[in-house]
Amino acid sequence: MTIDWAWIGDHLGDIWQATREHFLYTVIAVSFGLLISFALALVALRWPRTYGPITWVTGVLYTIPSIALFTFLVPVFGLTSILTAQVALVSYTLLILIRNIVAGIRGVPDHVVEASRGMGMTERRIFLDVQLPLAMPAIIAGIRVAAVTTVGLVTLTVIIGAGGYGLFILRGIGRRFLTEALVGTVAAVLMAVVIDRALVALERAATPWARRRRPA
Amino acid sequence: MIEFFREVADWFADPTHWTGNRGLPNLMAAHIGLTVVSLAAAAILALPLAVYLGHKRRGGALAVSMVNIGRALPSFGVMGVVFPITLAFSVTATPLGYWATFVAMVLLAMPPMFVNAYTGIRDVDASLVEAARGMGLTERQVLTAVELPLALPLVMAGIRTAAVAVVATVTLSAWLGYGSLGTYVFIGFAQRDQVTVFVGGLTVAVLAVITELGLGGLERLVDPLRVIRRRHRRLPE
Amino acid sequence: MIRLESVTKVFPGASTPAVTSLSLHVPEGEFVTLVGPSGCGKTTTLKMINRIIEPTSGRIEVGGRDVLAIEPHLLRRSIGYVIQQVGLMPHRTVAQNIATVPRLLGWPKDRIDDRVDELIELVGLEHGMKDRYPAELSGGQQQRVGVARALAADPPVLLMDEPFGAVDPIVREHLQQEFKDLWERLGKTVVFVTHDIDEAVRMGTRVAILNIGGILEQYDRPEEILANPANEFVARFLGEERGLRRLGLLPVSSAGLERGPVVDISADPSEARTVMETHGVDWVGLLDGKRLLGWVPASEIGSTPLRDLRPRDFLVRLRPDDSLRRALDAVVTSRTRVGVVVGDDGYLGMLDVETVAEEITE
User: Which of B6, B69, B76 to mutate to test the interface with A (most CBs of A within 10 A)?
Assistant: First the structure.
């Protein structure tokens, strides 16, 4: 079994199209996931007793297999709706994002918050200027996991008629064509890696203080 | 909406859905069978190495890379790549799509099993290990008497995570021609039959939840500090 | 400046109050230390002044204003607050940390920059540290930044909760001394919580001794408390070396200094012998005018002119503002059994054990 390079050459346009679709799906899902997770995290931080139930619900959503979730949404949104895919994709990001946001904020040392309060910062200021920036590493770590997982899940959306790299995989399977399936798989892995590295760079840029240490 | 669920109920009431190749018992058995075989293979590959490296407290980078690569590798893609390869070697004794799914599932299950077992063993309180060594236990005894029992809940957690993931993803075997609960989803989409699609998803979801709860319970049973935890309710999990 | 009237604090779910009907007046410019055993409510009391904790009953006034009548964050911007773990913002530079309250108050950028420079010098840091992050500083340096930050908006009141507790003892002593000097220069009102009676007594102009439940046992100048503990609790809390601690607070200049066995080098050796006999010692100190040169043992006094002798140096030369405790140490460890005191103008006199002992019983 060899790779048909000519085929790849012929289909660069399709590959690019799939890339755009795949990327868009991923970004939309993670962005909405982040928005919803932030809102829920703020609720959990303000009313700690809600954290348990929130994690339970998002945990159940996480346990339900993605394909199953697609099928549950089909009667609601139809067989080939974008919403079917997006609602499922967003649900998968919730657990990890909420957990990381809450852990990140709670992980800010108490004495830093106490000193800031003692100096006369309002609670809002403390959240925006102190807790959020210091929680960034944890939050971005969560976004990385959510993004990479989503890239993988988007390959499955093809079964409900969406595009992306899953299309190559599906066709490769149908035609017993190695090259096509390989292109779909490798492209998905590459996109996941690129997004992950980009987020790492973002984290580094956003946290200049984290790398400075005492000169010996 | 209610109409729809009535139709789903009707599907389950229909006796023809319970017999034959495309019957629920058959497909579920195939689904569970492939799951168990994949998990067993993954466990054999991942666990001994993880325990060994964890005991030696080496190879943390390997665990991390495994998880990262595993997360970025789409199972569907792996299946799509391995499938034509298995066809080229025409392993006719086994059903179509079986091996491709198997390989993808082993790759899916190994990272969580590995990282949990590795961390579980490695993070056993170092002072306990040192005390055991100091009392004269051999390395193997330290492993079997101290590290393994204490790490067992985490090892089980890794198996549980892997099991749920595999149960969920074996569904894709249907696209390769191997009959599993995914067959309902596959056929349903092809025939634009929403009810069958839903049945496929429902059965897989139920199986996943049972796996999660069942193995979760086992995980708690296996915890050597279980009695103390319940009694004091203050020890960290 | 700060007035607590019958302040009580009961935490929800607690059976006994953390602070019981505490009344305390901190006059302006005083350095008050709150000290007591664990559970005496000293930190709780401190935190009620800047309303981090709210009293269950009673009234607290700062600068004549009821603390409960002002918006908490506005109140706190007018009070400096220093805690043990410092609490510097790890993601801001030293300069940005110090500038926190001035920025909250809306100071113009230039004024803030100047103030930061001023404070960095004031607390003894180098200007190069302005752009470093807290993780790059040592514990002692971080604590200095914490003090600078508290002083940034020039608040009249400073609250400090065991600020030097987290650094090692050598650094702690330095910080204590430096801060005390700083306070003398700035003239702020300070309330300082500590569990260390030595620190309390050394740093405070007034010491408040609290018992468990926030009961005020004694509130007075440290010398007074050490000399006359109000009750047995205070006496036990002060510990057994009360007398020595008290000596640590008294300067040498407060004791009666004797001229002692000294003789000018221009004098005749026979005068040296007379002086030694009068004082009943076997050594004599040599002066050149007002300058104390050292001492010589009797065996070296012969016919040689005193000028030509090579005197030995006194191991310790006390200054008038050194503590009597140091003087006692010098007396006890020296060959000559005295502590010589030298001021800016020269020789002032000497102390012996009896002189010091008198101060204890006074």
Answer: B76
Phi, psi of C89 (to 5 degrees): -75, 115
Summarised one tens digit per residue, pLDDT across range C141-194 is 999 999 999 999 999 999 999 998 888 888 888 888 889 999 999 989 999 999
Spatial CA neighbour of B190 closest among A174, A164, A14, A82: A174
Question: Which strands form C19-26's sheet, in the order they lie side by side?
Answer: C19-26, C2-9, C57-62, C65-66
Q: In terms of DSSP bridges, do strands C57-62 and C31-35 run parallel, antiparallel, or are they unpaired?
A: unpaired
The secondary structure of C198-229 as a DSSP string is HHHHHH-SEEEEEETTTEEEEEE-HHHHHHS-
CA distances from C129 to A212, C38, C94 (A): 13, 37, 7
C281 within 8 A of C331, measured Cβ to Cβ: no
The SS3 call for residue B165 is helix
| Six token digits for residue C314 | 């006194």
Give me the residue from A114, A121, A125 closest to C83, CB to CB: A114
Q: Is the CB of residue A21 less than 8 Å from the CB of residue A184? A: no
Among the listed residues C61, C55, C68, the one whose alpha carbon sits nearest the alpha carbon of residue C8: C55
Query: Is A165 in Cβ contact with B169 (below 8 Å)?
Result: no
Mutate to test the interface with A, among C73, C101, C130 (most CBs of A within 10 A): C73
Residues contacting residue C321 through CB under 8 Å, at least 6 positions apart:
C251, C252, C253
H helices then E strands: how many in chain B? 11, 0
Q: What's the gap in Å between the CA of C212 and the closest CA on chain A? A: 25
Smallest Cβ–Cβ distance between A115 and the set C73, C74, C83 belongs to: C83
- The interface predicted TM-score of the complex, written ipTM, equals 0.86
Does C132 touch chain A if contact means CB atoms closer than 8 Å? yes
Alpha-carbon distances of A18 from A7, A98, B108, B225, rounded to whole Å: 15, 30, 24, 52
Both structure tokens of A46: 């303000």
Q: Please judge whether C135 and A117 are an interchain contact, meaning their C-beta atoms are less than 8 angstroms apart.
A: no
Count of C-beta atoms within a 10 Å radius of residue A11: 16
The pLDDT tens digits of the residues spanning A154-194 come to: 999 998 888 899 999 999 998 888 899 999 999 999 999 99
Q: Cα distance from C227 to chain A (closest Cα, Å)?
A: 37
Single-letter code of the amino acid located at B182 = G
State how far the Cα of C180 lies from the Cα of C203, in Å rounded to an integer.
7
Instruction: Give the torsion through C-alpha atoms of C200, C204, C208, C212, to 10 deg.
Output: -20
| Residue among A153, A181, A189 whose CB faces B84 most closely | A181
Q: What are the distances in angstroms from CA C344 to CA C6, C257, C318?
A: 49, 16, 11
Contact predicate B157/B217, CB 8 Å:
no
Whether C206 contacts C30, CB under 8 Å: yes
Q: Scanning every residue of chain B, which has its alpha carbon at the shortest distance from the alpha carbon of A151?
A: B72
DSSP A130: I
- The whole-model pTM stands at 0.80
A66 contact residues in B (CB cutoff 8 A)? 168
DSSP annotation of A64 reads S
